[in-house]
Amino acid sequence: MLRNIAILGTGGIADQALAPALREVEGARLWSVLSRDRDRAQAFARRHAAAAPRSAHDTLESLLADPDLDAVIVATPDGLHAGQVIAAARAGRHVLTEKPMAVSVEGGRAMVQACRDAGVQLGVGYHLRWHAGHRKMLQHIRAGGIGTLRHMRAHWTFQAADARDWRAQRENASWWSLSAVGTHCLDLIRWVMVPECGEVVALAGIVSREVWNGPHDETAIVTLRFESGATAEFCSSVLIDAPSRAEVYGSDGFIRCEDTLTRFGAGTIETREGRLDFDVCNPYVGEIRDFLEAIEHDQPPEVDGGEGLRNIELLAQVSK
Ligand SMILES: NC(=O)c1ccc[n+]([C@@H]2O[C@H](COP(=O)([O-])OP(=O)(O)OC[C@H]3O[C@@H](n4cnc5c(N)ncnc54)[C@H](OP(=O)(O)O)[C@@H]3O)[C@@H](O)[C@H]2O)c1
After folding, report:
1. Which of 25, 35, 50, 123 could cysteine-pair with 40, CB 3.0–4.6 Å?
2. What's the gap in Å between 246 CA and the centre of ligand 1?
């Protein structure tokens, strides 16, 4: 059965990653799109061959009123996710929302509840889990390849040109570097560590915002401790142009990922025994496939609303 999927928002991730990935997913097609601007919606719908007879919308109400629509992908600024997800759920549509799922824990809880009440699936877009190398790394770890997990570190930064990004403003965001890349580092750490080491039991964070003096973090350093006593740390920043890195340390080995924390599914992964080979593939395709499987089999997606909520509960503990 071909699922009809709408995208909300026509910006960077929708245009460059999600709509192109949707084309590669068998069993689904881009159906319609929401923009604040009708012309922009039409141009996006044309560019990505949206299939609905009426594919371009400038209100969420008209997009959700389409009886042939099955699901929506929310790719708007963080502060809009909660309202849009709740409206979609109440209209009976499954939802895959971009990360972080909301700008407050209350908003995240309301999203989870609305989707539960409506009996629709809620997924959160942490695409790094579908990086083929990361999946291979996880298999190696779960097979005991580095022994008992002791520590993990992730570092993902970029250089912002100025502070005009909506993430740097109060209106539609609660975090800047933490929203753009830090939340991904945290998800990757939770994915690797929590099943073996238990939940996060302690967190400490330091943020710096001294370059543009806005309301949100320009750089954030976060440290974590898990039930087992294992630890983790990550750094996110909008002030540093450098390759990303993730490292996992166990009682019997280590893994180093160089430049795998990107949108592209590439980079290199080294273990103590040598390089871990993997195919470079588009992680957003895996993310959308998993969302479709959740719909087909009436089961939660790999990153469900509860996991997305845990992420923002922890981000909310990082001091301002
Ligand atoms: N998973 C990932 O790899 C990844 C990467 C980047 C971003 N994201 C997430 O995806 C979401 C969108 O991020 P983005 O980088 O694509 O942002 P963006 O380039 O600014 O695009 C957001 C789009 O949302 C729409 N929008 C509606 N109301 C808006 C408002 N008040 N201000 C600005 N835009 C508004 C706009 O489309 P119209 O102008 O057509 O209405 C805009 O193009 C965020 O939650 C972000 O964290 C995820």
Report:
1. 35
2. 26
CB 54 within 8 A of CB 32: yes
CB atoms within 10 A of CB 260: 26
Give the residue, out of 7, 8, 10, 13, with the most ligand 1 atoms within 8 A of its beta carbon, to mutate for a pocket test: 13
Asked if residue 146 has pLDDT above 70, the reply is yes
Cβ proximity of 64 and 88 under 8 Å: yes
Residues 262-274 have pLDDT tens digits of: 999 999 999 999 9
Q: Does position 319 have pLDDT exceeding 80, yes or no? A: no
- Cβ atoms within 10 Å of 109's Cβ, excluding its own: 16
Domains annotated on the chain, with CATH: 3-126 (3.40.50.720), 128-282+305-315 (3.30.360.10)
Residue 122 clears pLDDT 90, i.e. is over it: yes
For residue 53, the CA-to-ligand 1 centroid distance in Å is 25
Calpha distance 73→77 (Å, rounded): 13
Q: What is the mean pLDDT of the chain?
A: 97
Q: Of 65, 63, 76, whose CA–CA distance to 31 is shortest?
A: 63
Residue type, 128: L
Across the range 270-297, mean pLDDT stands at: 97
Q: What is the DSSP letter of 129?
A: G
CB 308 within 8 A of CB 115: no
pLDDT at 320: 62
Q: Is the CB of 77 under 6 A from ligand 1?
A: yes
Contact 5, 294 (CB under 8 A): no
Partners of 151 in the beta sheet? 231, 249
- CA dihedral defined by 179, 302, 304, 56, rounded to 10 degrees? 70
| C-alpha to C-alpha distance for 266 and 55, rounded to whole angstroms | 33
CA of 180 to the centre of ligand 1 (A): 11
Supply the pLDDT for residue 1: 79
- What is the distance in A from the centroid of ligand 1 to the CA of 175? 14
pLDDT mean over 172-199: 98
